[in-house]
């Protein structure tokens, strides 16, 4: 039931864009995105609920395709501070929320000057 | 600091010893989660509480692991007879009941090393 993230790693120059994908074989109730820097706790970025919504703040946005059980995280005009490992956490649709997140293996994003 | 607090931050123990970790969630959060994270992997679900009730426990957890949240506030995670494979970062997170506008806040974690 672990979601699959792609790519595993990406290297950018400052100002470039990136897309990180997350897919599940199960019907999803929600998708949560986190960023974790080395030695630190995961930090919440956003949550997307089933219904195919899209969210964003600043230059980071995400979409959730309920039919395909896929979510994508979009980082535009990347900044050095965006570097870290990005995780998607998925919540299975069990006729509602089951409150348990299953995380992917992560995508390591490195932004160079 | 009003975030999720975990104690200790680091623990080194000998194989076979018991260890206990503590998590203090954000005060108004009624849900509390324990996750385990190893190098290069995402957090792995261990168990979760709603108030003082433990509602789910991962089937991957052996009987050596036990968690409590006696008064619906702080929680403890105990590992008995530790093994080298238990070495990992143990993360605690908390969230509110509001499903549409919730986020799980993670603590800084307790890094366990079993030697």
Summarize the model shown:
Chain A is mostly beta strands. Chain A has no helices and eleven strands.
Structure description:
The complex is a heterodimer of chains A (113) and B (115). Chain A has strands spanning 4-6, 9-13, 18-23, 28-36, 43-49, 54-57, 60-65, 70-75, 84-92, 102-103, 107-112. Chain A is an all-beta fold. Chain A starts with a strand and ends with a strand. Chain B contains no helices and eleven strands. Chain B has strands spanning 5-7, 10-13, 19-24, 31-37, 44-50, 53-57, 65-68, 75-79, 88-95, 105-106, 110-114. In chain B, the strands form two sheets. In chain B, strands 2, 4, 5, 6, 9, 10 and 11 form a seven-stranded mixed β-sheet that branches. Chain B has a four-stranded antiparallel β-sheet with strand order 1-3-8-7, with no helix packed on it. Chain B is globular, with a radius of gyration of 14 Å. The mean pLDDT of chain B is 91. Classes of the chains: A mainly beta (113), B mainly beta (115). Chain A binds chain B through residues 2, 32, 34, 40-44, 47, 49, 87, 89, 97-106, and chain B through 4, 31, 33, 35, 40-45, 48, 50, 55-56, 91, 99-100, 102-109.
Radius of gyration of chain B: 14 Å
Instruction: Give the number of DSSP strands of chain A.
Output: 11
For the sheet with most strands of chain A, the description reads: 6 strands, mixed
Per DSSP, the total helix count of chain B is: 0
Quick one: overall form of chain A? globular
